[in-house]
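Q: Got one fold?
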Amino acid sequence: MRTDSAMAKSGVDLPLERASVEAAHEAIKEYIHCTPVVTSRTVNELASTPQPPEALIGTMCEGRNPAHPKIRLFFKCENYQRIGAFKSRGAFHALSRLSGEQLSRGVVTHSSGNHAQALALAARTHGIKAHIVMPTISTPSKIAATKDYGAEVIFSGSTSQEREAVVEDVIEKTGAILVPPYDHPHIILGQGTMALELEKQVEELVKGDPSLSVHGTSKEPTKIPEPTNGSSENGTLPTHRRRAGQLDAVISPLGGGGMLAGIATALQDTGTRVFGAEPSFEGADDGRRGLEANQRITTVKTLTIADGLRTPVGEINWTIISDRSKVQGVFAVTEEQILSAMRLVLERMKVFVEPSAVVGLAVCLYDEGFRSLVEHEGGEEGWDIGVILSGGNTTVEAISKMFAADDKHAERAEAKVGRDGKRIAENIAG
């Protein structure tokens, strides 16, 4: 699909660097919520407890002693963001970079849910027209919410070719500006603003209660390996010093990659490592597999319950995510692990989230490779980790179905069955 030239060249040409994320935050802060950061002693204790040996059976870590990391988690609750997900950040920033003439033409995008609602809200706020192309298999509640924000919803087939053909038709007829769901610098920079907030919020929390941090009782800053591709002469990574209130790492869900790329851009050269998290079901872990193959995977066809992560990593986002100086790794978790993490957040933290939101927590709890990394690099003191809870756009009915005790493979109530009753697996932009 062609990128609309007006969107590509709109506004100020901002480089993908931290200063641009700071400028993005200044541009959108009046339109978005500074979402809360919460902690949980119960979840910290679970994350810091070794897994039972049987949990490693069938994995690459089978036969090893389970890792015993010390972890303190700080949850950035983007489920409390406007429209219930982080996507508002990118949408508002994209529109802030359009000229008055461009805004007057209206905007168009294709999305099955969160980006659709975010762009509809941003367009209504700016008093302009929004054309949203949505697959017919989109969740009824998300279609209704998009319409409630004043957007014109145009239905399409579920394949990328069908969706993009309808978008092209809208652009041809109306002259509307295309605002992509994730693969554009303005979207990336907008999503990265959550990392700036997270940094400051964690610092303030730990200042008020040092015990929240693994570094809180240290008299001196802690040495941890520097996130870099380089190595010292003895083969170990060079070190830098961390103090209480400075995150050792941030882990973010990875779908199309706009959020992870934005966070990595915001945190580059700060000393905070950045990781991505994906579902593994039916090849949804295209980011992880692409890094292993040293090549971006362009097609994803999966029915993972983490429906917001059913998209392949975008081209621009891949250039950031595949740079090990910016993103230090991507990990994948099973459907069962996602559900387990989701149950923990719902029942113990009392936070309402969708499955896509908890993949980062699931990695911290269950991915032995990641846990071993924290144990090795964090040592006796451990790591403070920021975890992005990306959204909460699901329903009680969908959650009930996912946790149905008599059906281990419970279907989601959304984006799985088309109008003709056929099951559909398609990479739909979130």
The chain has 16 helices and twelve strands.
